[in-house]
Design a protein that fits this description.
The structure holds two protein chains of two kinds.
Chain A: H1 2-21, H2 25-38, H3 47-50, H4 53-91, H5 98-119, H6 128-171, H7 179-210, H8 223-235, H9 238-252, H10 261-266, H11 271-288, H12 301-306, H13 313-341, H14 343-360, E1 379-384, H15 390-404, E2 410-415, E3 424-428, H16 432-438, E4 443-447, H17 453-463
Parallel strand pairs in A: 1-2, 1-3, 3-4
Helix pairs in contact in A: 1-4, 1-7, 2-4, 2-7, 4-5, 4-6, 5-6, 7-11, 8-9, 8-11, 8-13, 11-13, 15-17
Chain B: E1 10-14, H1 19-32, H2 39-52, E2 56-58, E3 61-62, E4 65-68, E5 75-81, E6 97-104, H3 109-126, H4 130-138, H5 142-153
Parallel strand pairs in B: 1-5, 3-6, 4-6
Antiparallel strand pairs in B: 2-3, 5-6
Helix pairs in contact in B: 1-2
Chain lengths: 464, 154
């Protein structure tokens, strides 16, 4: 359970960080292009246009992040409060305040949200606009001052410490070891969180100083994934082999890395291959001093080329992708060939299929089953991520059974994030930890497959 | 109910031998009919949702669905796959029908999601009715499937 909670927590934090940066990636790319083109060492040096570079990274990009972070918390009012608070953090230090914006934006929005929650319903008719405008102005002014006096200096110290830590890793030649964390995290769909939540801001900071950054190449290098897919194409067999051709095009040309994740999950030992490929690519870039001027998003070969530096940059970037792909391919081919011949893997595969089958049949055990928990139940929520597909189908099946049993129980479906009051919450096993965090007071039951009639029959028996 | 399954969103004998390929082809088809301008972004969002938990629903059916910025208007598609051996990401049971739904993020999302919930609720009953699914399996005309779906959904 602790491991599940940790995973949920990391995913949630990652999603939050990347959600602040991802909508603004276009601005990062615009800044990257302007930098690449017009700085003194750029493709077409232009002193006038290069004047855009500094203000964009110091003000525009952090403000966009703060604005977006605020909007996530409390819509338009949160966005404005977030931007104002971020301004306080920005002017408090002389470094680009990406980390500060990620903290200040949401905090400013929380302040105005809490005010609205307590005061909004008490406003006399006709005074709404007056109260709304002045409350936002006053509260945001206060949070901006807090941002300037407290948050900014703290974040500056933290940012410098982080920068020094990363700098030390680079100086010691240990940067390739980052792949040991990054590549497995990608497979857990934390790729955007890592890239846009961590490396894009760090890269922007480094790029503003040195005109390029190796951080942009850590998560985005398509080489490791390409190596896995090439190995499936050349030494794999069956559906995986056939589909690897199409997947490699989507991955390499389209930059959709998610498409290779299932190929790694099919044979988890392939994680070694992508780690190896990632390390090789990073080592190459570190030795050659290669970096990109802006974030290549998505991580397609075209984006990598476009964001490469002038001169040998394109060649070095392509070479780093080739190196990563070659190493990943060699390890993957070895693993795939070995697993086809290995009897133990066949048995493991059978076990995995059996486990999946059991899960699909809803044999997952409830996570909480207290005495008396099924008494006086008034409301059951079937919940899933979006609250419109799987949960709606499950609620439909359960609702019919509850109706047939003539029970006076409301059965509805919701997104986990919208969970409110309920006596029992039913979720698929992978999502139960999230649901428990959202509504700890309810009895939480895990189900393998939302359409499992037997599960609902058992539940109705307990409810009668 | 505002959302119905349109004739142009019923695709029979759909190509694809794996979940990823099916979803990829759905994204391209949605671009063809003007539902999305960014099939790659849409694919990414769907796969992120699939990564949370599989949308295999049993009864030969998978229901990939997503709330996304990469869809221009609500999309609800019924797909009968061509590959008789298709399975849905690790499940040992075959998948013949894929019911896909995408809802745009935004102010109206709550309303649209409520409608989609009703649709999937009705679908839950349909796919457990062998008389219906046996018709879906052999129908040569999309209109037959459209009528059976919209009759129940209405």
């Amino acid at each position: 359970m602790r491991e599940n909670n940790l995973k949920t927590g990391v995913q949630s934090l990652g999603r939050t960080l990347s959600a602040m940066v991802m909508p603004n990636i276009g601005a990062f790319i615009a800044w990257g292009f302007i930098t690449a083109l017009f700085i003194p060492t750029g493709w077409w040096p232009n002193e006038s246009l290069a004047a855009l570079v500094g203000p964009m990274i110091k003000y525009l990009l952090p403000l966009l992040i703060g604005y977006t972070g605020g909007k996530m918390i409390h819509k338009d009012r949160g966005a404005v409060a977030g931007a104002i608070t971020t301004m306080g953090v920005i002017v408090s230090a002389d470094i680009p305040m990406f980390l500060g914006a990620m903290i200040a934006g949401p905090l400013g929005a929380v302040a105005i949200r809490e005010f609205d929650k307590r005061i909004h319903h008490r406003i006399k008719p006709g005074f709404e606009m007056l109260v709304n405008n002045f409350s936002l102005g006053i509260i945001a002014m206060i949070t901006a001052i807090i941002g300037y006096l407290v948050m900014g200096p703290l974040v500056a110290v933290l940012t410098k410490a982080l920068g020094s830590g990363v700098g030390w890793i680079v100086e010691q030649g240990l940067l390739p070891l980052v792949s040991i964390i990054v590549e497995p995290a990608k497979i857990l769909f934390l790729n955007n969180a890592i890239n846009h939540g961590v490396f894009t801001p760090l890269g922007a900071q480094q790029s503003s100083e040195f005109g390029k950054s190796i951080y942009y190449l850590i998560e985005t290098n398509p080489g490791p994934g390409l190596g896995v897919l090439l190995a499936y194409m050349l030494v794999g067999k069956g559906a995986a082999q056939k589909s690897a051709y199409g997947a490699s095009i989507i991955h390499f040309l389209g930059g959709i890395h998610e498409i290779y994740f299932p190929y790694v999950l099919m044979k988890p030992r392939l994680i070694i291959a992508v780690i190896g490929g990632g390390m090789a690519g990073l080592a190459f870039n570190m030795i050659m001093g290669n970096g990109l001027v802006g974030p290549p998003s998505p991580g397609s070969i075209f984006a990598e080329i476009l964001m490469s530096t002038k001169g040998m940059g394109v060649v070095l970037t392509l070479a780093s992708i080739a190196v990563a792909a070659a190493v990943s391919f060699a390890i993957s081919a070895f693993i795939i060939r070995g697993s086809m011949e290995g009897e133990d893997d066949l048995e493991a595969a059978k076990e995995r299929v059996a486990a999946n089958k059991a899960e699909a049949k809803g044999m997952a055990a409830p996570v909480a089953d207290q005495a008396g928990a099924y008494e006086n139940v008034k409301r059951i929520i079937v919940a899933c991520d979006a609250g419109m597909g799987s949960s709606a189908m499950g609620a439909s099946v359960l609702r019919n059974k509850v109706k047939e049993a003539k029970l006076d129980i409301e059965v509805t479906n919701l997104a986990i994030n919208d969970l409110d009051e309920a006596d029992i919450v039913i979720t698929q096993r992978e999502l139960t930890a999230r649901a428990q965090q959202k509504l700890p007071s309810a009895l939480h039951l895990s189900i393998g497959n939302f359409m499992d009639s037997a599960f609902y029959d058992d539940l109705v028996k307990k409810l009668v | 109910m505002a959302i119905k399954v349109e004739r142009e969103s019923i695709w029979l004998d759909f190509p694809g031998t794996a979940r990823e390929e099916i979803i990829q082809n759905i994204c391209f088809k949605l671009k063809d009919i003007g539902k999305t301008d960014d099939p790659s972004g849409l694919y990414h969002d769907i796969m992120e949702r699939e990564g949370l938990v599989s949308t295999f629903a049993g009864h030969d059916t998978a229901i990939p669905h997503v709330v996304t910025n990469h869809i221009n208007s609500p999309a609800l598609c019924f797909i009968r796959v061509a590959d008789p051996d298709l399975t849905w990401h690790g499940n040992s049971e075959n998948v013949t029908f894929v019911v896909f739904s995408a809802v745009p993020k935004g102010e109206a999302a709550a309303t649209i999601r409520a409608e989609q919930s009703q649709i999937f609720g009705a679908l839950a009953l349909l796919i457990r009715t062998p008389d219906v699914t046996s018709v879906w399996k052999v129908a040569e005309d999309a209109e037959v499937i459209q009528k059976s779906l919209n009759f129940t959904l209405s």
